[in-house]
Each structure stands twice: as structure tokens, then as C-alpha cells.
Malectin-like domain-containing protein
Amino acid sequence: MGFLICACLLQLLFLGSSPAAAQSPSPARALDAMLQDYAYRAFVRPHTGIVYNGTVPADLAGVAVSGLRLRSGSLRRKGFSDYFEFSFPPGVIVQPYVERVVLVYHNLGELSEKYYPLPGYTYLSPILGLLVYDAANLSAVGLSELSIVASGSPISVSFSNVRAVPSGSPAPQCVWFDLDGVPQFRGLEANNVCATYRRGHFSIVVNSSDVAPAPGPSGAIAPLIPTDGGRNKGSSDAWKIAVGVVGGVIALGLLALLLVCFVRYKREKKMEVMERNAEVGETLRMAQVGRSQAPVALGTRTKPVIESEYVA
Ligand SMILES: *[C@@H]1O[C@H](CO)[C@@H](O)[C@H](O)[C@H]1NC(C)=O
Ligand SMILES: *[C@@H]1O[C@H](CO)[C@@H](O)[C@H](O)[C@H]1NC(C)=O
Ligand SMILES: *[C@@H]1O[C@H](CO)[C@@H](O)[C@H](O)[C@H]1NC(C)=O
């Protein structure tokens, strides 16, 4: 009984803590996984070298996703020009090597800011994504991304429909996000053209911050309480500290409980396994004894019935 409560609590705590933990993917990574699925669903008896547009559900309206299946060897030797805004020169190598790849194209449209918020900057173009997956199983979901390296000249991204730079702004820049979501900036290659040697998400931005938004003060206990945009600082500080202390105490208590539960759970699990092993051993032994008798018993039971029925 106590064990059951403990197990429930344990599960609750793990479930409850998982969204905050590092294991849960960011919204952008969750979107990558979804779009991989939608791109692969577009492949019905696909030909290599042909672009297939995926369809997305209503909550992703405005997002475009497409898939292009290529042989890695062909990509390396010949490249591929005009995959929407992307152009691959010869020399693009897939790592680790697989025979065929799917190049998945994203255009996040109006949802660019939502999935790739970039305070202090203004997007002049939607975020475009280029991710690479193994094409071996076209019904696979949750695939992990492959890397690509442009070993010769870079892959070019020629943005279309770039908004005009707001007057008085500094020069626009290319921004590149790898899978970790960390932005990296570099200059444009040409008007509306960015260059990349790798996969990821790309856009053109301008620095729009005359006043850089200061990061909020973060105490040691800040992660435990949801951070609120503090308006009236003076009165809310004492309140914050009180909540922090209470939260800390509760968290400590829960942690201790969790530890106790975990130890008990482990012990219980071990006992269970030992018991099950003992049971399995027993049933096996019984089955062995039974099997030597079974044919005799079955034969004598069924035969007379069938024969008498056919004769009658
Ligand atoms: C795929 O979508 C693009 C626009 O996003 C369009 O230009 C192209 O014609 C579509 N291709 C197919 C095969 O429907
Ligand atoms: C392909 O992936 C699907 C979904 O993950 C899986 O059920 C199926 O067994 C896979 N097929 C092969 C041939 O690996
Ligand atoms: C934007 O430009 C301003 C002034 O040139 C600079 O101080 C600031 O650090 C830049 N902001 C970002 C986020 O790079």
C-alpha cells in the first residue's frame, strides 16, 4: 500500500518535472520532428530528385515543408541547384554516410518568430530550414538528423521576398541556427544571399535594439518559481523571497520523500523480480512434468469421440 503511493508519487514527480528537464525537446526541435514526419508522408512511391510538398495541419498553417530524396553520391558529385531557396554545389558530404538522404525544407512563414525568437533583432525574411535525414525507411518517425558539410564552395540560400531594411538600421545580417537553437551571425554574401556550410535554419535579420533588453535578476531559487514580469519591484521583492523560501522548503521535502521512495521502490522491484524468477522456475518445472503425460491424455480423450461421430 505504502509502496503503491510511493510509486505513484515517483511517477508524478518524474512526469511533472520532465517538461522543465533538459530531456524534453524545445518547441523548435519538436517542430523539426513533426515536419520530418509530414515531409516523409508526402513520399508516395517517390522518385529521386523530385520535390514533394508536404501538407501540414491547420495549427501550422503558413508553414511549408517539402522533401527531396537524393543519392548521397549524386549530391556529392553533382550538387543540386534550386531546391527552393537553397542551392547545393558539388562537394556536399553527408555525415555519417548513408546511401540515400532526404533533404527536408522548411519555411516557417508567420511562425518564424514563435519558434526562433530573437530579441533585439527583426526578421526580414521567414526562417528557412534545411535538415537532412536517412532515406532508408520512408515511414520512419523520430529520425535523428544527419550532418552535411559543404567541402568546396558553400551552399547558398537566396532569400526571396526580403523586407526592406528599416531606415536608420545597421546592415542586415545572416543568422544561422544549428539544432541547438543558438544563433550565429555573419554578413550577407550578396544582396539577399546567405552562405552556409551546414544544415540548420536561416534568415536575414537587422539589429533593431537601440536599448538592449536587460535580463531579469535571477536568484538562486529562481528556477523553482515561474518568473513573472515584475512590475512594481519594491513590494514584489519581499513577496518573491517568501515564495522562494516556501518553495525551497517544499522542494527539499519532496526531494527527501523522493529519495526514500526511490530506495523503497528499488528494493520492492528487486523482490518482485526475485519472486517472479521463483515462479517462472516453478511453472517451467511443472510444464516439463506435464508434457510427458500430455500426448497420452489427449489421444485417449479425443479419438473415441471423432470416430464414433464418423461411424454414426
Ligand atoms: C510545392 O510548393 C511550391 C510553393 O511552396 C510550389 O511552387 C510548387 O509548385 C509545389 N510543388 C508541387 C509538386 O506541388
Ligand atoms: C520503418 O519505420 C517504421 C516506423 O518507425 C517501423 O514500424 C518499420 O518497422 C520500419 N521499417 C523498417 C524496414 O525498418
Ligand atoms: C545592436 O546594435 C547596438 C548598437 O550598434 C549594439 O550596442 C547592440 O549590442 C546590438 N545588439 C545586439 C543584440 O547585437
